[in-house]
Amino acid sequence: MFFQKKSLMFDSESIGHQLRATREQKNLKIETIAKKLVIKVDYLKALEDNDRTKLPTGVYANNFLREYARFLGLDYRELVKQFASETEISNNKTNPLFERQIVAKKYLVAIPTLIRNSLIALIALVCLIYIIFLVNKIFQAPYLNIIYPANDFPTTQKELEIVGQTESESEVQINSQVVQVSSDGSFKKSIYLERGLNTIIVSAKKKHSRSATVTRRILFEDNPPSLNSAN
Q: I want to staple 18 with a disulfide (CB 3.0 to 4.6 A). Which of 10, 110, 188, 195 is the partner?
């Protein structure tokens, strides 16, 4: 009895089916082929199962397919082309509607994240502004107003009362002498003048702040010239 070698045509069949059918027709075990080709059995099984997820990436899968097909006597060139075509079809099988749903879901997830990050940034900005306000308030010179006397004030009275207003937590000094400040920030102090021009320096300072200073020039004459003597 003579056996006639026939070439198998599997144009409409998958690569895996062609490989398995040819191997089984030749009564070959996949483990035996794996040893002769020095290729892992799992890779040959993946080729027969059309499971590309278990195959290495790049040119390795093509090389394994080529060696396996040549060993079985198949047209490896056509199989490699078919493998590339099936791989491209597999990669393009994603449903566009499903892709849009995934993208829409990502946007829905991103929007709350954007809102959260915006709120965090806003809160951080408010806190920063508040800290700057507090620091500025700490180091800013306090309010100071001298109610009496006015500047360049002439008087014939030796004793003069200084009246002013500042912030309640301030320390006030008049000519380097500490003056008591009331709870509402008002203060007053009587001073004695020297004959001639007197310079009164009033300063107010909080614990860590700069000083606020107001100067008053007071002219004291106990015997002002009369009109008759002037004549």
A: 10
- At 172-182, the pLDDT tens digits run 999 999 999 99
Count Cβ atoms below 10 Å from residue 88 Cβ, excluding itself.
Answer: 10
Q: Which CATH number fits domain 15-91: 1.10.260.40, 3.90.226.10, 3.40.30.10, 3.40.50.150?
A: 1.10.260.40
The model scores a pTM over 0.85: no
CA distance 224 to 178: 32
Distance CA 16, CA 47 (A): 5
DSSP state of 19: H
Topology, domain 144-223: Immunoglobulin-like (2.60.40)
What tokens does 207 get? 């614990």
The gap from C-alpha 141 to its chain's centroid, in whole angstroms, comes to 36
Q: What is the pLDDT of residue 92?
A: 55
Distance from the Cα of residue 6 to its chain's centroid? 70
